[in-house]
Amino acid sequence: MEEKNTYIDKSKHTIHNSSNDLDLYLKALNSAYSGIIITDNMQYDNPIIYCNKAFETISGYSHNEIIGHNCRFLQAQDRSQPQRQLLKESIQRGEECKVEIRNYRKDGTLFWNELFISPVKNEAGQVTHFIGVQNDITARKKAEYDLREEKAHVELKIQERTKELQEKEIFLSSIIETVRESLLVLDANYIVLSANKHFLNSFKVSSEETLGKPLFELGMQQWNIKSLKELLTQILPTNNPVIDYEVDNIFPHIGRKVMLINAYRIEFEGHYKDRILIAFEDITEKKEQDQRKDDFLSIASHELKTPLTTIKGLVQILQRMSPDHSNDKFVSTLDKMSAYVDRLNLLITKLLDTSKIQSGHIELHMEPFDIDQTIREAIDNITLAVPGYEIQLSGTTGAIVQGDELQIIQVVNNLLSNAIKYSPDSNKVEVRMHKVANFVKISIRDYGMGINYQDRLKIFERFFRASHIQKKFPGLGIGLYVSHEIIANHNGTLWVESEPGEGSTFNFTLPITNNDESHGA
C-alpha cells in the first residue's frame, strides 16, 4: 500500500500529499517568531498535537507538557473572559477567529496574547484540525495603559510618583534589612549592589567582601555553578524566576550547607529596572531531618515485610489444614485475616516505593509493550475486583511504548481505584486512549466529588490528602505521588482536570517508541 504523508495548504485549508513539503513547512513553522500550535479537532477535547519552539518560549512550558492539553490550560483560573466563549463558539462552527486574551505562563506570570485560530478542512469539507497563531502583546497593552494614564494625570502623577518612590524605597530598604532571610540585590551584570544583615551574618562575611563583587566570584566561587548561572542569566531577558534551586556546597567560614535559592527580576516602578533579588534559605537541617525520616520509613518497611510474610504463610497453612466441615465463623475469620494481611502488605509496598523514589533508587525494567493491551487488561482486573462498577473504554492507539509495564499497570490501577473510591454516588468510570503526536494519552474520568483549585496544586505531593476527604476516606496520600513519579521517570506527564462537584479527569502521556527502537528491542 502506498504510504501517504500530508501537509496543510493554508490558502485552501485542505490536506495534500507531500513528504518534502511537510518537512519544509514544519521547519518554517519551527523558525517562526510567533507561537504556532495545531490541534486535532477529530479527537476528544481538541488536544494540541504540535507546537513550535516559539510557543514553548512564550508559554514557558516544554513540548512534553503541552502535547495532549486543550489550549484553555493557558488561561489557568482566569476563566470568566468573554473571549473564551467566542473561541468556543468559533471552534464549534468551524470558523476563523481573532481575540486578545489574558494567558499565564508556567511560572504564573500574566501575558496578553493576540490569538488567531483558523480551521483546516479535508476534501469533504470536514474540519479536521485548527491552527493557532499567537503573539505576545503584553508590551503593547502596557504601553496603551501607560499612555492613557499619562494623558489623564501627567503633572499630578509625577508629583505623586516621586513621593511614593521615596516612601517605598525607604520602606523596601527597611524590609530587606529586617527580614529573617538572606537577600542580595544584583545589577544587570550580576554585581552585588546590596546585601542585608542576615546574609552577612549567615555567611559570616563583611560588606567589603560582598558589595561591588560579582556573585559568581564570592567566597570560594560557590555560586559559580553552570546550571545556576544559566538560570540566573535568563531572568532579565525572559522574566522567568529561579524557583527552589538547591546548592549543596562547602562555604568558607560555615562549612557544608544546603541552600535553597529563589531569584526574581525587580521592576520597582522603573526605579530598580533590570535588577535581580536573590533569597537564600539554609535548609541543611530540614534536609537532614527528611533524610532521617526517609531512612526510618525504608528500614521500618523492610523490617515489617519479614514478619508479615511469615504471618501470611501461617494463615495459608491454616486455611489448607482446616477440616472440610469447619465452623463458618472459623473460615470467615481466616479469610478476613488473609485480606487484612494483603491490605497491610500493599500499604508497606507503597511505603517502600515512596522510599525508593525519594532516595533515587527506583528501578525501571524498560521493555517495549502494547499500551492498548496493558490498559485493557488493567481494566479487566479492576472490573473483576469491583463488579458493581461500569468502566467504559474508548479509543485505541496501536502504539508500542518503551517502559516498565508493571509500573504503568500500577499507575492505571491506582487511578482507577481512586476514581471508584472517591465516587461513592456513581457507578461509572470512563477511560479514553488516544494517540497525540508522538505520545499516547490516557484519560480516566470519574463522576465523583471533584477537587478544588488549591488542592489540585498539591495533589501529587507526597503524603498530601485533600482537606474534604481526610476523615471520610482512609489513606496515606502516597498513591498519586508514586504514580506521578513513575510517569515522570518514563518521560511523560500526569495531570488532573477537576472542579468541585463535577468529578475529575486524570490524564497521563507516554512517549511512543519509534520503529527503529522497537526493532532494536
From TrEMBL:
Domain PAS: 21-94, 168-239
Subcellular compartments: Membrane
SUPFAM superfamilies membership: ATPase domain of HSP90 chaperone/DNA topoisomerase II/histidine kinase (SSF55874), Homodimeric domain of signal transducing histidine kinase (SSF47384), PYP-like sensor domain (PAS domain) (SSF55785)
UniProt-recorded Gene Ontology molecular function terms: ATP binding; phosphorelay response regulator activity; phosphorelay sensor kinase activity; protein kinase activator activity
UniProt-listed CDD domains: HisKA, PAS
Enzyme class (EC, first level): transferase
Organism whose genome encodes this protein: Sphingobacterium athyrii
UniProt key word Repressor: no
UniProt domain Histidine kinase: residue ranges: 299-514
Source species taxonomy: Bacteria, Pseudomonadati, Bacteroidota, Sphingobacteriia, Sphingobacteriales
Reactions catalysed, as given in the entry: ATP + protein L-histidine = ADP + protein N-phospho-L-histidine
SMART domains in UniProt: HATPase_c, HisKA, PAC, PAS
Biological process (GO), any one: osmosensory signaling via phosphorelay pathway
Protein name, per record: histidine kinase
